[in-house]
Amino acid sequence: MLDGVSLDQLRTFLAAADEGSFSAAGRRLRRAQSVVSQSLANLEGQLGVKLFDRSGHRPVLTDKGRALLADARTVAGDVDLLKARAKNLAGGLEPELSVTVDVMFRTRCLPTRSRLFRRNFRRRCSDSTLSRAP
User: Fold this and answer.
1) What is the distance between the alpha carbons of residues 99 and 19, in angstroms, rounded to a whole number?
2) How far apart are CA 94 and CA 7, in angstroms?
3) Which residues share a beta bridge with 60?
4) pLDDT value at 134 more than 50
5) CA distance 54 to 60
6) CA–CA separation, 122 vs 91, rounded Å?
7) Phi, psi (degrees; rounded to nearest 5) at 53
8) Is the dihedral of CA 40, 43, 45, 48 positive or negative?
9) 46 and 12 in contact (C-beta within 8 Å)?
10) 14 burial class (0-12, 13-18, 19+ CB within 10 angstroms)?
11) Which of 33, 54, 55, 108 could share a disulfide with 23, CB 3.0–4.6 Å?
12) Which residue did the predictor score with more confidence, 104 or 64?
């Protein structure tokens, strides 16, 4: 059942939820509205959950759709991080840092400096390598 769920379907779900309409999601994804609608219908069938209430003029997330939206964002974000990490590793970026500290260095500063380095490194890497959809 869930093995057939694709990243493309999740990104379509996110676009439709963010844009508030299947037509707008189609424009964002550069697809026809009918393709978006069919992709979401397939996703709903695979999940066994109705994600959108289509009875009104615009589709509205159901309670179950809202509950699954955060999970879909997490999955899509994790895939983006995986791709960024793989790109960095393929480009020669090492996943660890070795530090040598001189005996004259005030060791109580080390944890603070390490945290600052880690925060700046993550921000720099995510800004330059992640290409998240708007």
Assistant:
1) 47
2) 28
3) 53
4) no
5) 7
6) 16
7) -90, 115
8) negative
9) no
10) buried
11) 33
12) 64
One-letter amino acid for residue 64 of the chain: K
DSSP code string of the chain: -GGG--HHHHHHHHHHHHHSSHHHHHHHHTS-HHHHHHHHHHHHHHHTS--EE-SSSS-EE-HHHHHHHHHHHHHHHHHHHHHHHHHHHHTT--S-------TTS-GGGHHHHHHHHHHHHHHHHHHHH-----
Quote the CA–CA distance of 6 and 42 in Å, as a whole number: 10
Give the tens place of pLDDT for each residue, 16-26.
Answer: 999 999 999 99
Asked whether the beta carbons of 85 and 96 are under 8 A apart, the reply is no
Task: List the structure tokens of 88.
Answer: 């960095």
Q: What is the pLDDT of residues 69-126, one digit of tens each?
A: 999 999 999 999 899 888 888 887 766 667 787 878 777 888 888 888 888 777 666 5
